[in-house]
Specification:
This protein is mainly alpha-helical. It has helices at about 1-10, 15-20, 65-85, 110-120, 130-140, 145-155, 160-165, 165-185; strands at about 25, 30-35, 40, 45-50, 60. It is about 50% helix and about 10% strand.
Length: about 190
C-alpha cells in the first residue's frame, strides 16, 4: 500500500495506469516508469487493459533514486511473498500491484485502501485517488516546472488542459509574486 501511494504521489499516473503497470515498464537503469496501457472497465463490468486514450498518454516518467529504491525493495518483497504461495512472479509482464492471486486489482481497490487509511487515522481533509494526480501537477507548477513539461509528464494532449484545470495554482503564484514585489519595494 505504501509503495502504491508513493507511485501515485510522485508520478501523477491515473488509477488505471497504476494498476496496469508491469515490471517491464520500470527501468531501474534509466530511473523511469513507462506508461503505455491502462486498466479500465469494459463491457458488462469486466476489466480490460487497453492503450491510453491519446498518444500523449504514452509517456515515460523520470523517477528519483529514492522512489526507485522503494520499487526495488517492493519487487523483492513481492517475489518472496508469492514464491511462498507457489506463484512465480518472474514472468515478463508481472504486475507491480496485484490481487492475492497475482491478477489485476479491482479499479476500486486503491480508493478502498485510501478510505481505510483515512478512516483509521482520522485524516482530513479527505483526498481522492485522482487527488494524488492533482497534487502532483500542482506541486510541479508551484515548484516552477514549465507547463509544457508538466503536460508531457501527465499525458495531457495540450498545455491548455493543464493550465485550464490547474489555473488556481497560477492564481496563487500571481498573488505571491505581487506580495513579494510589494515587500521588496518597501525596502
Amino acid at each position: 500500500i505504501f509503495i502504491m501511494f508513493r507511485v501515485l504521489a510522485f508520478t501523477g499516473v491515473r488509477r488505471g495506469e497504476l494498476l496496469a503497470l508491469t515490471w517491464n515498464d520500470v527501468s531501474f537503469k534509466e530511473n523511469s516508469i513507462k506508461v503505455n496501457k491502462t486498466l479500465t472497465q469494459g463491457d458488462k463490468g469486466h476489466q480490460i487493459v487497453q492503450a491510453p486514450k491519446t498518444r500523449a498518454g504514452r509517456r515515460t516518467i523520470p523517477v528519483d533514486g529514492q522512489k526507485m529504491a522503494y520499487l526495488k525493495r517492493w519487487r523483492r518483497i513481492q517475489q518472496e511473498t508469492f514464491l511462498q504461495l507457489g506463484i512465480n512472479t518472474m514472468q515478463p509482464n508481472q504486475l507491480l500491484f496485484t490481487n492475492t492471486k497475482n491478477g489485476y486489482q479491482s479499479l476500486n481497490t486503491p480508493s478502498k485502501r485510501l478510505h481505510k487509511l483515512q478512516d483509521d487515522n482520522g485524516l482530513t481533509p479527505r483526498i481522492t485517488i485522482h487527488g494524488f494526480r492533482h497534487s502532483f501537477i500542482s506541486n510541479l507548477l508551484i515548484a516552477g516546472v514549465p507547463v509544457t513539461s508538466v503536460q508531457k509528464l501527465v499525458g495531457h494532449t495540450d498545455p491548455t488542459i493543464t493550465l485550464g484545470v490547474y489555473a488556481h495554482v497560477s492564481a496563487k503564484q500571481e498573488t505571491e509574486a505581487t506580495a513579494a514585489l510589494a515587500k521588496y519595494m518597501q525596502n
